[in-house]
Amino acid sequence: MNIDVVSEIENIEVIAVGGKIRDIMRIRKQYGDGRWRKLKGCAMIVLPEGGIARAELHWYEAHGIGRKKMKIKRLME
After folding, report:
1. Counting beta carbons within 10 angstroms of the beta carbon of residue 31, is it exposed (0 to 12), middle (13 to 18) or buried (19 or more)?
2. Which long-range contacts (CB under 8 A, 24 or more apart) does 40-43 make?
3. What is the torsional sign of CA 30, 65, 70, 41?
4. 56: nearest Cα among 37, 41, 46
5. I need a labelling partner for 45 at 20 to 30 A (CA). Which of 12, 29, 52, 73 fits?
């Protein structure tokens, strides 16, 4: 599922780094080696129905590779 983020991601926090990530082997196999981090933050997104809502997002990120596997964890407000 492709998520359309329509605002800046705010309140970004690191959840886990490297070996502390449960899916690190799958992430490295799928996207390559890198200093992988799992992050979370809040942003305004476009819902599949067409509305706009604030949501908590989780994703994986590595320098030089970028953001991968972004998912909506929960809708806020």
Report:
1. middle
2. 40/12, 40/13, 40/15, 40/73, 41/9, 41/10, 41/11, 41/12, 41/13, 42/9, 42/10, 42/11, 42/76, 43/5, 43/6, 43/7, 43/8, 43/9, 43/10
3. positive
4. 41
5. 29
Instruction: Say whether pLDDT at 1 is over 70.
Output: no
Enclosing domain of residue 41: 4-76
pTM: 0.90
Structural domains in the chain (count): 1
